[in-house]
Specification:
Layout: H1 2-6, E1 27-31, E2 42-47, E3 54-57, E4 63-66, E5 81-84, E6 95-99, E7 110-115, H2 116-151, H3 154-174, H4 190-212, H5 215-218, H6 223-241, H7 245-275, H8 279-302, H9 312-350, H10 360-373, E8 381-389, H11 391-398, H12 400-417, E9 423-426, E10 431-437, H13 441-457, E11 461-463, E12 467-468, E13 470-477, H14 484-499, E14 506-508, E15 525-526
Parallel strand pairs: 13-14
Antiparallel strand pairs: 1-6, 2-5, 2-7, 3-4, 3-6, 8-10, 8-13, 9-10, 11-12, 14-15
Helix pairs in contact: 2-3, 2-9, 3-4, 3-9, 4-6, 4-7, 6-7, 7-8, 8-9, 11-12, 12-13
EC number: 2.7.7.65
Pfam family, one: GGDEF
Cofactor: Mg(2+)
Length: about 525
């Protein structure tokens, strides 16, 4: 205090962030409060809270020593340290503080002497903001973890690891893990936990970028360095956690250069992937770049720059929440894109390449599902088996291109004539199948007759205009105990009955169809007179 009164101490503006040199004896600070507005109970607050302890010396030998890990203080503060001034201390009396030496470089801090009401308002505002930000980050991380388990996609797991590590980093730096969460077991290991979380966050970020931005596809030359970064950071953490002095020193020497180079590597990788077409890379850049800029500004602030930007620490918390939301949107967009791609592949796999109707495998699966779903009901199911007449002759005389055009025309017509809920598929070369639900035999015969007529009216010539393409249709109704195979077999037999009795007809299966009898049933078969 004598040095203060003599004016030999270095002066600074307590409203601005002040950097204190690392000193084995600590640093002494004298605050000269303003007398205006300091009536009643007053508080000294230090923001952000230093990792080391701070001692305040009051009048008549009154002293208080607090640290982030002190859980006995009646007034502690959140994101800051706070001291009640001694009762009866004059508002204008200078306040002596000693910043005890810590195990790491002290972050710049600002000091304030406030009334209790002002302090409580500021403290509660910060606590609400920090809680909301951490809640957003934790929620996004846990949701991603659930998706990682459900979808078996490790990309979501890497995102979860990255976000949780960032939560730990900010929780240590702001003291949120100690107050209000009360994780007392962290006391004494905050520096180690924080440094390990920083290193692991970069590791998870590298692994996340590798998959999220599809580096192997869009930036293959950088894939190996990115993966190497992902595995190098945990190794540095292991070295840092050993009790071997040489390894600890090596880890401390490597960590900052690797962090800087790693951050730049991820930035360049994402930018290159985005330029080359990775949609997700732009999501990553939108979330990562602002946080990277803030981190660079905070690092510069630790050297004494930007002393008036005391909001950078709080901005890092808020920007973490922003990044969590942006990357979650990117993951959702990625999942939606993958789903669309899978749906497109499924459609291509299920569709006949020529006619664009269901192929045999897809039709069989869909028909089996329909039969299973209606097995315990009395809903009627009809199966039509269609075979084009004289198709081989058309191919032989006019070529396969003409045959392909005929198949496409017939498939399009069938699709237009049938209901959207009916199952239409290509069963073989010139064979089509259609499963109709909720129709009786008479209605199914009417549908089949309409289809037969529509095929003939396409007027596809086989031999000039003398012979046109037509279709023979067999019909089978589902009976008790039918499987798809038995139903198809009966419809196929009915179709062959038509083939043996003049083609261009519709016939419903009956027992005598199996014998290929010579007398056509007037009730179950239909035949139009030849069309000109």
């Amino acid at each position: 205090m004598a040095a203060f009164r003599q004016g030999s101490l270095k002066t600074f503006d307590p409203v601005l962030l002040q950097r204190f040199p690392r000193n084995a004896m600590g640093n002494w600070v004298v605050l000269q409060p303003q007398t205006t507005g300091l009536d009643g109970e007053n508080v000294v607050s230090i923001y952000p809270a230093p990792l080391g302890s701070v001692t305040i010396y009051g009048e008549q030998g009154f002293t208080q020593t607090y640290a982030m890990g002190d859980f006995n203080a009646s007034l502690h503060g959140h994101g800051r340290l706070a001291f009640r001034l001694a009762p009866g201390q004059a508002p204008s009396a200078p306040i002596l503080l000693k910043l005890e030496p810590g195990s790491s470089m002290a972050a710049p801090a600002r000091f304030a002497v406030q009334g209790m009401d002002e302090f409580l308002l500021e403290d509660s505002t910060w606590l609400s903001f920090a809680t909301a930000s951490f809640a957003v980050m934790a929620t996004m991380a846990l949701m991603a973890l659930c998706f990682a388990i459900m979808l078996r996609d490790v990309t979501f797991a890497w995102y979860t690891g990255y976000m949780l590590c960032y939560v730990v980093v900010q929780g240590v730096q702001t003291g949120f893990l100690l107050h209000p969460l009360g994780l007392s077991w962290l006391v004494g290991s905050e520096v180690l936990v924080g440094a390990s979380a920083v290193a692991l966050s970069v590791s998870f970020a590298a692994l996340f970028v590798s998959r999220f931005c599809d580096v192997q596809r869009y930036a293959p030359a950088l894939r190996v360095p990115v993966i190497a970064l992902g595995f190098a950071m945990p190794l540095i953490v292991v070295l840092r956690c050993t009790d071997i002095d040489a390894l600890v020193v090596m880890a401390q020497t490597l960590v900052n250069p690797v962090l800087i180079l790693g951050a730049l590597l991820l930035l360049v990788t994402a930018l290159l992937a985005g330029v080359r077409g990775s949609r997700q890379a732009w999501f990553f850049l939108a979330g990562w770049t602002p946080l990277l800029v803030l981190t660079a500004m905070t690092s510069a602030q630790a050297t004494g720059a930007l002393p008036n930007l005391d909001w950078l620490n709080d901005a890092s918390i808020g920007m973490g929440a922003f990044e969590a939301i942006v990357l979650s949107l990117g993951l959702a967009d990625r999942a939606l894109t993958m789903r669309r791609d899978r749906d497109s592949v499924r459609v291509l796999a299920d569709r006949d390449a020529l006619t664009n109707i269901l192929n045999r495998r897809a039709w069989t699966e869909a028909a089996n599902r329909l039969l299973t779903e209606t097995a315990d009901t009395e809903r009627p199911i009809a199966l039509l088996f269609l075979d084009l007449d004289h198709f081989k002759m058309l191919n032989d005389l006019q070529g396969h291109a003409a045959g392909d055009r005929a198949l496409v025309a017939v498939a399009q017509m069938l699709g237009h004539e049938l209901r959207p809920t009916d199952l239409l598929g290509r069963y073989g070369g010139e064979e089509f199948v259609a499963m109709l639900h909720d129709v009786n035999q008479e209605q199914a015969l009417q549908v089949a007759t309409r289809l037969r007529r529509r095929v003939h009216r396409l007027e596809i010539p086989v031999i000039c205009e003398d012979l046109r393409l037509s279709v023979s249709i067999g019909l089978a109704m589902r009976s008790m105990g039918d499987t798809l195979d038995t139903l198809v077999e009966r419809a196929d037999q009915a179709m062959y009955y038509v083939k043996l009795h003049g083609r261009n007809q519709v016939h419903a299966y009956e027992r005598r169809t199996e014998m290929y009898g010579t007398q056509r049933s007037k009730t179950h078969s239909t035949l139009d007179p030849p069309e000109a």
